[in-house]
Amino acid sequence: MKSFLLPFTLFLFVISIGGCKQNDKNPTTGNTASANEIQYAEGLEIYKYQGYSIVKVTRPWPEAKESFTYVLQEKNSIIPDSLKQFSIIPVPIQSIVVTSTTHIPALEMLGVENTLVGFPNTDYISSEKTRKRIDSGNIREVGTNETLNTEVLIDMAPNVIVSFGLNDSNPTLDNLQKSGLKVLLNGDWAEQSPLGKAEWIKFFGALYGLDSKANNIFSEIEKEYTNTLALAKKATSKPTVLSGAMFQDQWYVPQGESWASLFLKDAQSNYLWADTKGTGSLPLPFEKILEKAQNAEYWIAPGDFSSLKQMSDSNPHYSEFTSFKNKKVYSYGINKGAKGGILYFEWSPTRPDWVLKDLIKIFHPELLPNHKLFFFQKLE
Questions:
Q1: Across the chain, which distance is largest between two alpha carbons, in Å?
Q2: Peptide bond just before 254 cis, omega within 30 deg
Q3: Residue 321 carries which DSSP code?
Q4: Structure pTM?
Q5: Which residue from 74, 124, 170, 319 has the least number of CB within 10 angstroms?
């Protein structure tokens, strides 16, 4: 379970969000807008108008029944009366609080990391650049576990707080809004396609008036991913792959329509649960896993283990798998930040091209002879 539910622990230390409730009907203006600038993300829409933008988060969490609209107002521009029912945010913003480590890379790639003033449980942040700002006292703790510190946030008065929702109920963020703070939901975590997750950098680009820069950054990521995908198709074999690990009395594998499973597919491997439906994790008894995957050639993402011994000490039955015996187990748990935060959780949503290159290097090393593994490392 750890390998695919652990990323959610980085979200769950905040709170289950349902604040920021707004009318989800389509906004109307008398201004002519460009087409939606989003190509891959299914939960995000951005429309540019003269003097302002409309950002719509249409899927803040899986199976959400409501969407959220934010109007980003440039200096001295006039907002139509029809849009004044929505949250209006002056841009470019000068200060921000984010609540997921997946938001850190976007800020750094846009060159606006110095505007980050608060984060819940800063030990989760791996980035060396942002850790220096934490150590110097420029980024404050704004809560731990499932609570945000309302008093600290009100005192800080950031231009915006960017958080995420797991469902439609959250009094804490409602109270922050009632105190005059601007709270935006970010639904990047609910995206399943690799490029769909990465495209949420445009959400942050819009907040800082750096749309063009965000578009260029994403275009480079898209190009790298697309080229690497084409390279993968030259593979002459598809090795069988096992993933996940035991949690209590169940083994959790990524379902076939999940973000993790799509990477394995794009890397031209035969992931043994690729035909299952769903985007989450599928719990199965150990016996079912052993029956189907005992002879799988590779084992990818067995939780956050950092050695084979650590795995076998945790569960002696892991040694029954051929991939374990042949030392073909690859974990994201080795590459960590100074405080133990795992770089994979922080950077993989924004850099899917790095993830894909790692997996191709593992499954088809002849296709990327010069690539050095970044996220995944072979366990010894």
A1: 67
A2: no
A3: S
A4: 0.89
A5: 319
